[in-house]
Amino acid sequence: MITTLLALEDRLAQGQDFDRLLHPEFFEFGRSGRRWTRTEVLAELSGHGDQPSRTAVSAYQLAPDCWHLSWRSEGTRAAWRSSIWVQTAAGWQMRFHQATPIP
Known about the structure:
The protein is an alpha+beta fold. It contains 3 helices and 6 strands, in the order ααββαββββ. A 6-stranded mixed sheet has the order 2-1-6-5-4-3. The N and C termini lie far apart (30 Å). This is DUF4440 domain-containing protein. InterPro entries: DUF4440, NTF2-like_dom_sf. It comes from Inhella inkyongensis. Residues 17-94 form the DUF4440 domain.
């Protein structure tokens, strides 16, 4: 399951499939501390086009159709990242994301 979820995270990082992959009630606490709604993400974010370097990847099944993915991004955008993914009729969708900067 980790491989599947990381592939979906990569599509979002590349600015692909936002409309399909973000749950209608998605929101995020970004690395900057800003709270982003799905509408704001769709309007303003285009992805940064790179594959983040990841360490400390883990995934936990919270329910039959719900997974929590966490990992550490490295480099200039170093942060602990956490996503909640739910399986819907539309496929896997990110319901929540949070990035906490690493000083």
